[in-house]
Specification:
Layout: H1 14-40, H2 59-66, H3 70-76, H4 78-108, H5 115-141, H6 153-172
Helix pairs in contact: 1-4, 1-6, 5-6
Length: about 180
């Protein structure tokens, strides 16, 4: 059995600020996943509120991509709406799972100064950002202008905090 040396974690440190940023991102994902399950899809409901959002990104972006308002698509194409709803439920579960994963990994291992846990969180967050970038690129490729009505706030927040948290954590772990 190996013993670990004591790591003096401080919230007001470079690694501490990185941990706070990733903890808040994990909480955003948990909230986003729960909101999709509860408010947007209302489990067991047979009628979906199409005015609240788009099918993939925002209602405006999806309407521009598909050439007609999301409300019409939802009312006229029940098969497409059902498929998207099922995919959104899976996505909400993945957001929830990733938020729990990120929060637990940061709370239990990054605060202990474990480099592998920190870099796992960074890489996992970059993978999520890459998937949203891929989705956004499909819209851009079709001529849809993207704005601040994009996907869940967790994506926009992650795009802003990940580079900052990665650099702060790297320095905080003593790699500079």
């Amino acid at each position: 059995m190996t013993t670990r040396t004591a790591f003096d974690f401080q919230w007001i440190s470079r690694l501490g600020i990185a941990a706070v940023l990733f903890l808040s991102h994990g909480r955003c994902l948990i909230i986003a996943g729960l909101l999709v399950f509860w408010l947007y899809r209302k489990p067991g409901s047979t009628k979906r509120n199409a005015g609240w959002g788009g099918l993939i990104l925002s209602a405006r972006a999806v309407s521009a991509l598909l050439g007609r308002p999301v409300v019409e698509i939802v009312q006229e194409d029940q098969i497409l709406t059902t498929v998207v709803d099922l995919i959104m439920n899976v996505s909400a579960g993945l957001w929830l799972a990733f938020g729990i994963f990120e929060t637990a990994l940061v709370w239990f291992d990054v605060r202990e100064g474990t480099a592998w846990a920190f870099w796992t969180v960074v890489l996992a967050t970059l993978a999520v950002l890459a998937s949203w970038a891929s989705i956004s690129w499909q819209f851009i490729r079709c001529g849809v202008r993207l704005g601040f009505d994009l996907p869940p706030v967790a994506f926009i927040y992650a795009a802003m905090i990940t580079p900052i948290a990665a650099v702060l954590g790297w320095i905080g772990l003593g790699h500079v």
